[in-house]
């Protein structure tokens, strides 16, 4: 179940990072709903991955302890069929207990 803001939905990395921070900082379900409405307004209907991200943030509880970006690598092939590592960012909401 991927939970992220896909690059093809929002190509600008800075905007994606800002939205990840805002989702992680939301202190209520109403704030999360407002963010969803804002994203639909600005970028169009939410893809499944973004809906999953909001679900994870909602299940984590307000506010999500913190959002961390782990560098992941996926294989990409060029015309000469040599695999290349392409860095991507994956959001992970970590729950911390006190």
Q: Can you tell me about this structure?
A:
- With 98 residues, the protein is an alpha+beta fold.
- Helix content is 42%, strand content 24%.
- The protein is built from three helices and two strands, in the order αααββ.
- The chain has helices at 13-25, 29-43, 48-60, and strands spanning 66-77, 83-94.
- It has a two-stranded antiparallel sheet with strand order 1-2.
- A hairpin with a 5-residue loop joins β1 and β2.
- The longest helix is centred in the middle third of the chain and has 15 residues, at 29-43.
- It is globular, with a radius of gyration of 15 Å.
- The relative contact order is 0.21.
- Residues 68-76, 81-90 and 94-98 have low confidence and may be disordered.
Query: What percent strand?
Result: 15-25%
Distance between the termini: 28 Å
Number of strands: 2
Cross-sheet strand order for the largest sheet: 1-2
Features:
98 residues, 3 helices, alpha+beta, 2 strands, disordered C terminus, globular, two-stranded antiparallel sheet
Protein topology:
Elements: H1 13-25, H2 29-43, H3 48-60, E1 66-77, E2 83-94
Antiparallel strand pairs: 1-2
Give a quick rundown of the structure:
The protein is built from three helices and two strands. It has 98 residues and is of the alpha+beta class. Strand 1 and strand 2 (83-94) form a beta hairpin.
């Amino acid at each position: 179940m991927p939970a992220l803001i896909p690059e093809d939905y929002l190509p600008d990395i800075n905007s994606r990072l800002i939205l990840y921070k805002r989702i992680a900082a939301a202190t209520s379900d109403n704030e999360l709903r407002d963010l969803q409405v804002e994203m639909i307004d600005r970028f169009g209907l939410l893809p499944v991955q973004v809906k999953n991200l909001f679900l994870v943030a909602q299940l984590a509880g307000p506010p999500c302890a913190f959002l961390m970006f782990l560098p992941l690598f996926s294989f990409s092939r060029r015309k000469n069929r040599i695999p290349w590592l392409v860095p991507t960012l994956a959001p992970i909401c970590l729950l911390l207990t006190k």
